[in-house]
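Name: phosphoglycolate phosphatase
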Amino acid sequence: MSAASWLAGVRHLVFDWNGTLIDDIDLAVASVNRCCARFGAEPVTRERYRREFGFPIAEFYGRLGFDFKRHPFADIVAVYLEHFDAHVARCPMHDGVAELLELAAARGIGASVLSASQSNVLLRTLDAKRLLGSFQHVVGLDHTHASGKLDEAWALQSRLALPPADTLFIGDTLHDCEVARQVGWRALLVETGHQDRARLDDGDAPVCASLAELLPALSAPAAAGEPT
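Structure predicted for phosphoglycolate phosphatase:
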């Protein structure tokens, strides 16, 4: 399936943030390994992180060998966020992000962010990257439970006031695919994020190598009847 097919009829793009727009994998691995050192788990490689990562996050930490009877999950998350939140604004954006947002806007396609990051950190980082004004809605979490973002997706859908099938959710995990399916959005996954290609291929959404694959389709002349 071509990128043009993925975007046909799309009136709004919803982007996951971590791993999809911002390249924060190495920081995430370093933050997890700080938790490993603090709480007595074996350190993880980048490859194992991407092979094991998933939602709910507590189950991910369980697969990594953390003992919640000895160390409550909330304590582990606090150590992770202490390091991650302090450094995430230094992470680079993935290739093609600025161009993709500019082309989408020129085609009359709206854009929003839906993230499992905490809202205050998400807004601060978007502002640091000078991207805050590129999005119609920015939706993060107001808690640190890291259980997922389905409730937030439903709330965003109600704010969009569009048929769900007119929205494409672009993410980097199977959870993003599941959220899109439940809300009724279309889904597209990129393999540049927190789960490796082998994991993503288990989903029911197309997978592209990078966001840059979408640029030619958005650069092409608008088809008749397409919003401009």
